[in-house]
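Researcher: I've been going back and forth with a colleague about how Lipoprotein might be arranged in three dimensions. Neither of us has a model we trust, so I'd like an independent prediction. The organism is Streptomyces gamaensis, in case that matters for your notes. Sequence below.
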Amino acid sequence: MPRPARPHRPGSVPPLPRPARRRHRARLLGAGALLAAAVTGCGTVGEPLSAGRTAPAAAPSPLWPDRSPAPTPTGEQHGDASSTPVPGIPAVPAGDIRRVDPYSVIKAEVAAHRHDVTGADGLDEETAAKLVSCSQEHRDCPLRTPVYSDLTGDGRVDLIMGIEMGEHFLGLRCYTVSDGRLIRIMATVVRPSSVEVSGRDLIVWEPSTTPHYAVRSVYSWDAHRRYMDLQSDEIRRTDAGTSSEAPEHSR
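Model: Here is an independent structure prediction for Lipoprotein. You can compare it with whatever you and your colleague have in mind.
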């Protein structure tokens, strides 16, 4: 027996018949689905979501283009450095640098540049005198333990040596073998807090005069010049004196 219709109260919305209520509910559900799609930015599952508007790419805009640029520096530059055969060292057997005595290498260089106090071969007199009698057994030898690593990328290890000098300075030198000859491919003086090898890069960390910052210098093999060239020199934020944070700016 059909249920009697409810009486309509004045001022209220009259109820819809059942078929009309179903059609009205379907329209509401459809509108809700469209609203959800508009909010999420995605019509179906699996489609990409919009990340919003992207700032337009722009080329660098030069400032004061009418001003004359600075002239190219003259005189001796760091870029003039190049590989140098080590004097007094015989041919390297089988091109294996491990068969070269590191102490003989340093002694040969000191003998060839005994009185150089500046430049790539510069050493203070006290350090040079100690190197003359340096050996693996000599405890007062300023030469740090030699390190072998492939810096040039030819699949063979190269030689890295550090010479300790006064006031925490370090003479940093690297060598490779080319055509059976021992070649020096880097020579510089640094004042490091640490020295690292990362792949084929030689990384030197030096303390900065600014607290919680350090200078990070990266040397890499330049096949054209055949030398370990300074690739980057930047100041990085450090965590309590360690070298673990991201760079803040370059110098």
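Researcher: What would you highlight for our discussion?
Model: I'd start with this: The chain has a mean pLDDT of 80. After that, consider the following. The first strand starts at residue 84 and ends at 85.
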